[in-house]
Amino acid sequence: MQPRLSLVTLGVADVALSRAFYGRLGFVESSAGNENVAFFQAGGVVLALFGQQALAEDAGIAFAAPGYRGVTLAHNVATREQVAEVLAEAERAGARIVKPAQDVFWGGHSGYFADPDGHLWEVAWNPFFPLDAGGRVLLP
């Protein structure tokens, strides 16, 4: 079987608050959700928002207070200038800028924002990973 990533679920403290935040970012919510879960089409992947305690229970693990999770999500853009533009849009939507747009050691340009629950998003222009017409990364 071919490995694939179908869905990314973020455990959030307040589904309604996070639903509104991601809506302000421009994600379009599916009618498949309810007051406990929200689903957004995100290119070829679905972004889901689910209560963090309920998510821990569903996985059969104890809930622990969130902190650094060792995971980031990414939004790649076509130009260097778009990094600052997307970070500004995220900040207007209610994100906290963690690292402003800047040149990075690997030869690109990126910055980070955190959503209301502290989930990190990198906004990156990577000259080594071009984007197709739909904005999807094309690996060499």
Structural class, please? alpha/beta
Strand order of the largest sheet: 4-7-6-5
Q: Main β-sheet, in a few words?
A: 4 strands, mixed
CATH topology name of the largest domain? 2,3-Dihydroxybiphenyl 1,2-Dioxygenase, domain 1
Distance between the termini: 22 Å
CATH architecture label of the largest domain: Roll
What is the averaged pLDDT score?
A: 93
Q: Report Rg.
A: 16 Å
- Order of SSEs, N→C? EHEEHEHEEE
Uncertain residue segments: none
Number of helices: 3
Query: What is the CATH C level class of the largest domain, in words?
Result: Alpha Beta
- Taken from the alpha-carbon principal axes, the silhouette is globular
Q: What number of structural domains do the residues give?
A: 2
CATH superfamily of the largest domain: 2,3-Dihydroxybiphenyl 1,2-Dioxygenase, domain 1
* DSSP helix fraction: 10-25%
Residues in β-strands, percent: 25-35%
Count the strands?
A: 7
